[in-house]
Structure prediction request, 239 residues.
Amino acid sequence: MAIYKPVKKWLLPLLSIVIGLSIGYALFISKEDYQYSQWVTLLEDNETRMYQIESAYKWDNKVYSESQGVWSEENSYYQITTPISDGDEFSFDAYVFEEQFYLKSSDHWFVGTFPHSFTEELAPLDNPFKWTVDLLKHAEQITKDKNGDHITYKAIFKAFPSIDFRGTLLSKQDDTYLEMIFKRGEPFSLEWVVNPVHPDSLGPLVSYPETLTYHLSFDTNKDTVPALPAEAEKAEEID
Prediction:
């Protein structure tokens, strides 16, 4: 009994601290999981709507491409512009369906079948909701902030399993985040700011960005996706 009493004096408080920390840690994890599930639920609930969309993709603050159009699960339409040099730009129209896509550039039509490498260049415009859900699986941390009618979710990333985003390999990250704002339960904007670490596999001489930014805005509308013009029937098939 002489040994038990002093042990009891420090053992019980220590156990209380350990149990308290364990409960607190469990609550922190469940809160993160809850915010993740809320975000995913909002994405899935809104995926059946139709949106007017505008996007801008930048590589080290230089515009890589811009687009505007209408998105829906069944089919979408975009006008896409990519700067080339000296103020010149390349532009084309894209009609995207579940199994096929049509491209129009300088009055020439092309048609392709999914899966196709074109999807990689189009992402996440082919399905911004699914793309976001897939990306969130790799988040290190998720936060939520409410301000009036707006709810802002933010996901922090440190590493990806070698994701290819429009030709850029992403693996280790430094201060990379995805922020999405919902207004009255509907998507309002999405911003992905990527600060990737240059992969050793690419070598020091391979051009690689210090920062990538992708901004996407959503606007619900009653318009329909423009119908595919009749001349698209003569489109040239591309591999």
About this structure: The longest helix spans residues 4-46. The radius of gyration is 24 Å.
